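[[Encoded backbone]]
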Amino acid sequence: MFSWDDIGVFLALYRERTTGRAASARGVSQPTIVRRIAALENDLGLALFERSPTGLMPTDAAHALYASAQRIERSVCEFTAEVDGLTDAEVNLIRLTFLDHFEQLLIPVLRDFRSRWPRVQTQLLASDHIYDLARGEADIGVRGRDRPTSDELVVRELPPSGWTIYASAHTSAEERPHAPADVAGHPIALVGGVPATLPVYLWLEEIASSGPPPARCNNYRAIKSLVASGAVLSALPCTIGDGDPEVVRCFPPLEEWDVPIYLIGRRAILRRPPARDLFDSIAAHFDRHPELLMGVR
């Protein structure tokens, strides 16, 4: 009969689509993944994956089973967290995920937390990758845009992230726009992917439609570098732009360009004093210093 580990292997393969990446996600060897998925398929009497030039493709049976497997995974994570919460052992690792440009903002919080809880390690997952807290991939997260709705999560709204248009610090004041209406006609850079749907980038897209073709970048770092070179204007969050001497605001951030920011914690892990302390400390830090996220207005 199959076990939870087999379902975990199935989920890893479904998400990663190669045995190598699934092995990394599960912390096991590649042959183990191959062996376990073959055993699961045999036990179920179903083919779950088919080989293709780009990797393993889920079959119709795999698609049909995925939602149920996810529910099992979340139940196991919740059960494990509940067991941890009922034991007397201390939490010795808290996984904190946030966008990589937030880490400088959290240094004072992390320094104070370490002084209060010297035996607790804080693992920083600074990445554009969206870790699934409800699935147990991280414990506490700072995230933008969409408010999570899972009952397994505690959500606190933080001050919003402020955005404005930046130019190279090496340009003169006369060369920069001083109001939104002045941006038209300047070379513009835009970002791709999900950030392209943010209000300020939608506005810039409309501006760019009547001017020269915009430059396209795949992340904020690339946009910042292009702006710093003097080649373009573009939008950046104040958390990135205000701390870089190579770029300068053209005008203050506008409220209509604000992006909601949320502090998220796994409900089960927040029952433990160290995790609750870190969660509350992050919330209090940004409540005391909203300008860190919003920018000075």
The longest helix spans residues 60-86. The chain has a mean pLDDT of 89. Residues 163-257 form a domain with the D-Maltodextrin-Binding Protein; domain 2 fold (CATH 3.40.190.10). The chain has three domains: 4-76, 93-159+259-294, 163-257.
